[in-house]
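Progress report, Aim 2. The chain analyzed during this reporting quarter is listed below.
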Amino acid sequence: MDLAEQYLTKIVETAINEDLGLAGDITSQAIMPDDRPGSAVIIAKQNGVVAGLFAAEAVFKRIDPSLFYEDAVTDGAVVEPGQIVARVDGNLLSILTGERVALNFLGHLSGIATLTSRYVTKASAYGVDVKDTRKTLPGLRPLEKYAVLVGGGKNHRFGLYDAVLIKENHIKTAGGVTEAIDLIRKNLEGDLAIEIETETLEQVKEAIEAGADTIMLDNMDAEMIAEAVKAIDGQATVEVSGGVNLDNIEDIAKAGPDFISVGGITQSAPAFDFSLLTTRR
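Predicted structure tokens for the chain:
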């Protein structure tokens, strides 16, 4: 079992245990015998992009390995209301026991993929990539960043450990933009690219002179972004972050950054609405 499988197994078990406790599904157990067969379909109730079918399957298989699960579409598929996305067949009690947990994973991840795709559609028209951030639910970051990819976005750094990003409080602590960049070069081993957050055009110019590899333009309006992009003039990669939404992302993209990071695609994505409908055999 690789690390990805280990992670999925652990997060699925945690979610199932949270829902079942020690007693299990007491309602279903009281209404039906353990051996009653049945089948179910998972149906989309809105338009959007599906992500996380493998997580739904993992839930059902963890509850009852004898269940037969089959995807009707693949992750990344654009679906319509009423469209079947998966089928489950076998013990009806097991199916109902796994229903909510499976739909929670599927709905959350499809919601992220769907919202991401809306941002990507607007930004890609101007050749600008959309990336995620570290604004994720604790424990779900690998799944949420996967859903961003399914929606056509790209991943920013995964955590604090895999990329250098000097932010406002680092700059204050170091005593300035140049000082912060110098300290990174002095104290951090390895040839890692240096990204720094800037809030003013003065900081942008200082970051250029200090040799930053990526300059983040934080909470700037489109006019100021265009001015900063002009000043950077290809000397560093340009990221825009902060205050980005579906209403202003096109204006921001027109200003010419390389990519736009959007915390809301993971932090604020509404859940995708799915239903599971059973049939007794």
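The mean pLDDT is 96. Residues 3-119+270-280 form a domain with the Aldehyde Oxidoreductase; domain 3 fold (CATH 3.90.1170.20). These observations will guide the mutagenesis work planned for the next reporting period.
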